[in-house]
């Protein structure tokens, strides 16, 4: 299938002066001819249209076919092509938006931000070294997973920030349970054009927030706002005008990775950056607890962000260490108990203890750490699960192997000889003395759906997508296939059994949040076509386990239309809803037309019917995880 790239406000290379330019529609055939003859004409310094103008300059560009993903073009030609076709800041819409105003920029600043970078001899020297690595040390053909022409193609291309912008409801009506709330989706959006390799996971975090009209003003338009999470890394690189801080998945591979590590060390020693202030991207997910909304990325501490309930503006308020009690990082998938309001989380890293468990009380106060030393090698532990009394940790075959760079490999990879296992720890444990491990060969999970207890607490049930092609999880995500399974652990006998629930490629699942850690019946998962693109949503009836495929409803968005993870919002206005009384919400992008919608689906209907649709004024790139914040939660945000 022909890949298309939607572009509008284009910017030049990160280290060059930023200027806008417009391009015309290029057909696939003409695009191929242009690739061979370099005919493309540029119109430089064209002004961006005002926010209210129709996006007549929004175009569709078809880059050279890359469906086979493997690129064979020379690296330097690839960079020129990338600068032409994959702009660091693209923004397609029916309404092209102006750049952020100075006043809104000032509102989004961190309380503590780095001093503006001053061009110096050490900085220039380090930049020259990085350029030499990109040119002479990197292989002439980049791996598909880090080739920007592949990674930043189609709707993965980054966009500019968008100030709060009204957008019309073009179909149906917004349900009452969503009134006054906000749907916020996190995802990677690099602020600078990569100078070398770039992995999807290494883009700067950007929040795309849609504030919905209140019940008192139902005729008002929803408001879309897209803002960067102003991490320390983002601010340092914004002031430097180029990507200068390390990226784990992109930059550290083989000899080139070792060389980049030396450049990073030089930047630290010369005061160009301070890793103690954080190196994370906050690009993965969000969580709301203790009156605060946090943007999360597991390589760093949470960042406090805020959505203004009146204007829809999104601001960053700082990196949060919870009074000095949280160190290094935190999972991007904490679990909030729907009954107690407590939040359970962990962190993992390359040095012992490789996993540390902890929790927060209802008010957001962090408890003591519980180091887990029974994890004997650094592993990629992205998600976990909790029941009413236990926490379940999956140790899978993706491992950290820093010495792999010496032999030409990556610091993170898969170990086919490792046996996956599940660790069970009492949820309120103060140490790991009661930790038990259960081997589950071939069971590798990146995300959990839910877990609960049965048989008076003697059995644990875990439902999660099992990644069948784990070796592709980081390198060739389009080849990844995940099948949902129900795993049953008998705590008395130690027996483990597994039941497949569907053979379809499903991941990025959600449930009714009120059932987290408790037995539930329904799960809603994204249909990979291929991953990480989501072509639709499938509803599984978990009670039908053992009877064949458990899919009871599904919706496919249509040809060329892809979304991300759905999010379930309960319809509990009356306080007596059933488990599947509610709505699924997500952003959908049409790669054929360039249109973007926010869709609301009825979770009870046989075909997950769309009951409301909002036409978005700007493109929302594919991303990772989102959250819905109710009107009451928005108003309760602490200043």
From TrEMBL:
<comment type="similarity">
    <text>Belongs to the carotenoid oxygenase family.</text>
</comment>
<dbReference type="GO" id="GO:0009570">
    <property type="term" value="C:chloroplast stroma"/>
</dbReference>
<feature type="binding site">
    <location>
        <position position="382"/>
    </location>
    <ligand>
        <name>Fe cation</name>
    </ligand>
</feature>
<dbReference type="GO" id="GO:0016121">
    <property type="term" value="P:carotene catabolic process"/>
</dbReference>
<keyword id="KW-0560">Oxidoreductase</keyword>
<keyword id="KW-0479">Metal-binding</keyword>
<feature type="binding site">
    <location>
        <position position="625"/>
    </location>
    <ligand>
        <name>Fe cation</name>
    </ligand>
</feature>
<feature type="binding site">
    <location>
        <position position="447"/>
    </location>
    <ligand>
        <name>Fe cation</name>
    </ligand>
</feature>
<dbReference type="InterPro" id="IPR004294">
    <property type="entry name" value="Carotenoid_Oase"/>
</dbReference>
<dbReference type="Pfam" id="PF03055">
    <property type="entry name" value="RPE65"/>
</dbReference>
<feature type="binding site">
    <location>
        <position position="333"/>
    </location>
    <ligand>
        <name>Fe cation</name>
    </ligand>
</feature>
<protein>
    <submittedName>
        <fullName>Nine-cis-epoxycarotenoid dioxygenase8</fullName>
    </submittedName>
</protein>
<dbReference type="GO" id="GO:0046872">
    <property type="term" value="F:metal ion binding"/>
</dbReference>
<feature type="region of interest" description="Disordered">
    <location>
        <begin position="1"/>
        <end position="58"/>
    </location>
</feature>
<keyword id="KW-0408">Iron</keyword>
<feature type="compositionally biased region" description="Low complexity">
    <location>
        <begin position="27"/>
        <end position="37"/>
    </location>
</feature>
<feature type="compositionally biased region" description="Polar residues">
    <location>
        <begin position="1"/>
        <end position="16"/>
    </location>
</feature>
<dbReference type="GO" id="GO:0010436">
    <property type="term" value="F:carotenoid dioxygenase activity"/>
</dbReference>
<keyword id="KW-0809">Transit peptide</keyword>
<keyword id="KW-0223">Dioxygenase</keyword>
